[in-house]
Description:
Blueprint: H1 6-15, H2 25-36, E1 41-47, H3 53-61, E2 78-82, E3 91-96, E4 101-105, H4 110-113, E5 125-132, E6 141-145, H5 154-164, E7 171-175, H6 182-192, E8 199-203, H7 210-231, E9 240-242, H8 244-252, H9 256-262, H10 264-309, H11 312-375, H12 381-429, E10 459-460, E11 463-465, E12 487-489, E13 492-493, H13 498-505, H14 509-569, H15 574-592
Parallel strand pairs: 1-6, 1-7, 2-5, 7-8, 8-9
Antiparallel strand pairs: 2-6, 3-4, 3-5, 10-13, 11-12
Helix pairs in contact: 1-2, 2-10, 3-8, 8-9, 10-15, 11-12, 11-14
Amino acid sequence: MKTANPKITHILDKHIASDGNGKSGGAIYRSLIDNASNDELLLPVLGLQGVGKSSLINAILGECVLPNEADETTCVPVEIRYDEQSVVVSDADVFFKNGNKSTSSIEALKDYVDNTYNPGNEKQVERIVIRSSSKLLKSGIVLVDLPGVGSLTTANRETTEAYIEKLSYAIFVIHVNPPITKTEAAFIRMAWSKLANAFFVQNLWHDESAREANEGKEHNTSVLNNIAAKSHTLFSGKVLTVNAYDALLGIRNNDSASIGKSGITDFIDTLVELSNNWKSTISDSVNSAILGLFARADEAILTAIDNRKMSRDELQKQVSEKDAKFRSDIREIEDKVSDIDGLLIEQNTEATSVINKTVQNAEENIRSNIFRIIDSGVTDGDDLSRAFTDVQSEEFRVVGEAFNDFLREKVYAVTDKLQELGDLLEEQYDFGFEGARFEKSKEFKWEKGADFAVKIGGGLGGLAATWAVAGAVAGPIGMVVGTVGGLLIGWIGSKLGEGIHKGVSSSRASDTKNKIRNAIDESCEGIKKGLKRSYSKMCSDIEGNLNSIVESLKSKARKEHDDAVSVLRSTGNPEAELKTLSEDLAYIEEERKRYV
């Protein structure tokens, strides 16, 4: 395996500056070489939240080793490694950030990887390792399930991006309908530029026709070709179509026809080929990726040479024109951001009113209904506990539906504004930014994850509204902004313990009402505070990320301006600078021979 050349590292650092994703040209060059020398091949599955990454891994391995029903995954990488003894996958090793380790059953992994049970990775899990005897992994391939792009937490995005730095290969999973969006394209462009190579799989769902699959494939292939051309990245032009869900059903039912139709066999064959030859394959892919870096550096050097050849007056005019255009562009962008900020403030105020009103109605209904039950003679015991649970569950369901309707309306309003901003950014700066995307199929799920009720001796279960304002910004400023919103109400504890339960059993109706009244007040107040806090946090996240976009644009413009002014003010010898640039170009050309 080749080693990094210090001089070429310096040249790439000089001419391919950090793109905002933390890596300059020299750093990418070093990582490509270092990662290719590893004894194992980390092969993560990347894609938007909910695209079917876990299902695809399960289908590849031929068994359900990963939970694939999580509403929102936690920022915990799950690695599937080879172990000849693990004929049947039953347990997993859970590694914590403090150095501790525990064992979990596969069924209990949701306690760590589902944000409902481990919100924001509050359990501080570093990674999870599952052992499998799959022959596909025997040569050193490690499949990795990572959090989705556009997930509900910033930590998930950061986990995925940090993992990318350790990779040579990756599997990108994309939708058929809708095909690759601007959000996905921006993420793919950012990640792909740091990899030696990648596989692309479009995952089908049940309601997509063959025509839609072909049209989606054509669009996705075109987008990927465009990304590859702009970033000088190797692309085979191959996009595989798989129905991971049908593949799993076929495997479970031992139905070879369904497995064949799902397309999973062709993809497994591709991975088997990689497994058998991955070390030599990676060497070739790394060479191609490095040649792509050299091409990017050539472009930058030739542009710099052109600038050095311009007269001082020509360069001054170019600087002035760019500055004027940027000031005009940024004013328009700031106006749109200001409009969105104003809309969010207005919506936050309205949300407070809606929350107060709906929870107050629920509180009155709960009190009225449970008191009617008490007056009928049910004043203690399990009958009262069950009645209390049922009454509150129903009223909180109504609260959820009302807030869900409100949320949907507001998401669409913000979506329109964000899309206007995204179109402007793409037009002015040739990078993608996609606005909000409300997953209708993932609305409030009251029955999932926790018992949504306050029980005597119990507590209030998790309430989650899955709306995703997913944005990714890459390209010239290279900044990635993941999800900027999400609502999550965690556990709101009830003070009703066993002591009160026992006290109720021997109390009269009036005493029972007093005790239950306190419980109702507390649970309803908890819901109000939680919803308000989460909605405010969502708005604050959106505002913060939009302001970051503006600041990033300004920072990029300042750097370009300062570089140009530096040339203008230079008292050095332009001929000497041109000579240095030409020498860099010649050195890259000589180094290129090592990788052809």
